[in-house]
Amino acid sequence: MSFAATTTATPSFRIKRSTRGVPRTRMAVRSSTISVAPMLTKLQSDCATPLPVLRHVADSMSTDMHAGLAVDGGSDLKMILSYVDSLPTGNEKGLFYALDLGGTNFRVLRVQLGGKEERVIATEFEQVTIPEKLMFGTSEELFDFIASVLANFAQQEGGKFHLPPGRKREIGFTFSFPVKQTSIDSGILMKWTKGFAVSGTAGKDVVACLNEAMDRKGLDMRVSALVNDAVGTLAGARYWDDDVVVAVILGTGTNACYVERMDAIPKMQGKFSPSGRTIVNLEWGAFSKGLPLTVFDRDMDAASINPGEQIFEKTISGMYLGEIARRALLNMAEEGALFGESVPEKLSMPFILVTPHLSAMQQDNADDLQTVGSILYDVVGVESNLNSRKIVIEVCDTIVKRAGRLAGAGIVGILQKLGKDSKSAVFGKRTVVAMDGGLYERYPQCRRYIKEAVAELLGPETSQNIIIEHSKDGSGIGAALLAATNSQYDHDY
């Protein structure tokens, strides 16, 4: 999953120092400026996540989880039942497909499974960027585009991939938006997030939308499992490691899920699961309690397509970090003359600075911070000196530090909930949290801050049992594995 607002999954930077000027419109800075130093100090103070703040966030997350499990609408957290009652065991065999719609990109994947002995024999995938117009188009337009890509991909099947005679191809459909799941292979879209505003889909079964599009394209496939990316990641990681109990996505958007006992879900009284467990999808992007927010967060939220919603996501996910930093830098440029006596108009353009830019700038170890200077010049038309570049780095670090530490507090909140209700100790044994998403994968400072927050909250003895592990592209293979686990055909194992 990408962590850019409008870029592809693996952003590439052609960063070079321009030697000639570029025309750009400038706006005058007020003649009476204030020093940037106190502005930076205020930003750092407003974003601060000391231990008491982290504890409050973790405790509130745990409390909201209990409330959301008790009754629908009981908290900001939806606590959606995934209907995934059986996790992959390693015995799965056969050819299965996955369709992973997670944000600005989607992937189609096929996997040949060989059971315990051979495990994953072969995989192939293709990644496609969704045209921006389809993010604001109709449901039919979006799903027809997806079905076309899937049909073309299926036509290329060959080599190590074999479908047994008489079987229909089965798909695990990873759909990473809030869905009210009604069965393992159906779910009603509650609302679009991550910048999508597709008309005619809310309130509809997204599997039916995909099936209708596949029918229109003459594609004979069956969705046997509908999951979100967090659930797919958990399933994919659990395939290799039985100690995985939590999965977190930290990319363009963010979410988390975990394995829960059915008898710990009051709102599911009377429902049966053969294993006695199921995966619960928190939809934790909607969490909002105790978060340290700045004026830039509030302004960005007010200007968003969903003001007042998804506050945790807007504080910690990749779609928004670059924009928060841009707003802070614009304020410093206008009020504190950060870049001299004028401010380029481009710095006033929302989302022109994206999270991959922040990551690239923070990886700059050169004495003159040339990469920082190049990004500022090429992306937002800013001429900068060494001092202003150092301040830009501080702003980037402040924003991502808050994001990482709050994500870590959220993880501890989930573990605390499990620790209180679990009949087997969570904190006394090896417990694995599977992480995926571009922000986690490609922003090393973010990874470090997550792990530091978890260690700080749990202490050295307990935290050594909590393993935070990258599960790269886990949601795709996880969806294919769940398609296998929930196949309509008799398993030959």
Strand residues, percent: 15-25%
Q: Calculate the mean pLDDT score and round it.
A: 89
How many beta-strand elements?
A: 15
**Count of helix runs:** 16
Strand order of the largest sheet: 2-12-11-10-14-15
How would a textbook summarize the main sheet? 6 strands, mixed
Distance between the termini: 33 Å
Structural class by helix and strand composition: alpha/beta
- Uncertain parts: 1-33
Radius of gyration: 23 Å
What is the percent of helical residues?
A: 40-55%
The dominant shape is globular
Describe this structure in words.
The chain is α/β, with parallel strands linked by helices and 493 residues long. Helices cover 41% and strands 18% of the residues. It is built from 16 helices and 15 strands. It has helices at residues 36-46, 51-70, 115-118, 132-135, 139-155, 206-216, 229-238, 295-303, 311-316, 318-336, 355-362, 370-380, 386-421, 438-442, 444-463, 474-485, and strands at 26-28, 80-81, 93-101, 105-114, 120-129, 169-175, 179-183, 186-189, 221-227, 244-250, 254-261, 277-281, 342-344, 431-436, 466-470. It has a six-stranded mixed sheet, sandwiched between helices. A hairpin with a 3-residue loop joins strand 3 (93-101) and strand 4. Helix 10 (318-336) crosses helix 11 (355-362) and helix 10 packs antiparallel against helix 13. The two termini are 33 Å apart. The model is unreliable at 1-33 (pLDDT under 50). This is Phosphotransferase. Belongs to the hexokinase family. Pathway: Carbohydrate degradation; glycolysis; D-glyceraldehyde 3-phosphate and glycerone phosphate from D-glucose: step 1/4; Carbohydrate metabolism; hexose metabolism. One of its GO terms (biological process) is intracellular glucose homeostasis. Keywords: ATP-binding, Glycolysis, Kinase, Nucleotide-binding, Transferase.
